[in-house]
Specification:
Radius of gyration: 19 Å
Number of helices: 6
Structural class: mainly alpha
Strand content: under 5%
Helix content: over 70%
Largest sheet: none
Number of strands: 0
Order of helices and strands: HHHHHH
């Protein structure tokens, strides 16, 4: 089932249910989409205003950049759910014979690897949009500064939440090189998310 086109209430109902999908990974992607949406909003509230004419081009660039990211992160809500569903399906494969066990083990590894890659891509995507959130916080309409701050907090949640999902999947992956390189990237992205949120909140609190 796809969740990205659900109503808010339907999506919340599914999250609250006993079904493990959509779960934290999909919610992290949603947080990223909301962060990008708020960044766009602040840019739109800035562009076209005489007071902010000197940053018009930058705000239009923010809109052009973040709009497709909203769409991509919305798609990631379903991608994450599908990736986890594939892991569950792999565990349900037959395991009576040696051949079946080999096939099942391979399927589990492939699915688990993908279940780590999808949230990693979410974290990368949201990390890439963070500078645009910082830009609208710095140069955007001061009446929307709290919206930029909320965008930063949502972006941090998206990144850290997605990376938690990466880490839990790494624990089941046998490819040592993949695990090591991915774990190193996770550490870098976590630190960047925390630092970028801190920077935006400092900017916001100085203007409030």
């Amino acid at each position: 089932m796809d969740f990205s086109n659900s109503t808010i209430t339907d999506f919340m109902d599914r999250v609250m249910s006993v079904d493990p999908v959509p779960g934290g990974g999909s919610v992290s992607a949603l947080c990223g989409a909301l962060a990008a949406s708020l960044g766009c909003m602040v840019a739109r509230l800035t562009a076209g205003r005489k007071k902010y004419a000197d940053v018009e081009a930058e705000m239009l660039d923010v809109i052009d950049t973040l709009t497709p990211q909203v769409e991509a992160l919305t798609d990631d809500i379903d991608r994450d759910s599908h990736a986890y569903a594939a892991v569950m399906a792999a565990f349900k494969l037959p395991k009576e014979t040696d051949d079946e066990r080999r096939v099942r083990a391979g399927a589990i590894q492939d699915a688990t690897r993908q279940a780590a890659i999808v949230p990693l891509e979410v974290a990368r995507r949201v990390t890439d949009i963070f500078p645009y959130i910082a830009l609208v916080a710095t140069k955007g309409n001061t009446n929307a500064i709290t919206d930029a701050a909320v965008a930063a907090m949502a972006a941090r949640t998206a990144i850290l939440g997605a990376l938690l999902n990466v880490k839990i999947n790494l624990g089941s992956i046998t490819d040592a090189d993949f695990v090591a390189s991915t774990a190193a990237e996770v550490t870098t992205l976590e630190a960047r998310a925390i630092e970028m949120e801190k920077q935006v909140l400092e900017i916001a609190n100085a203007k409030i």
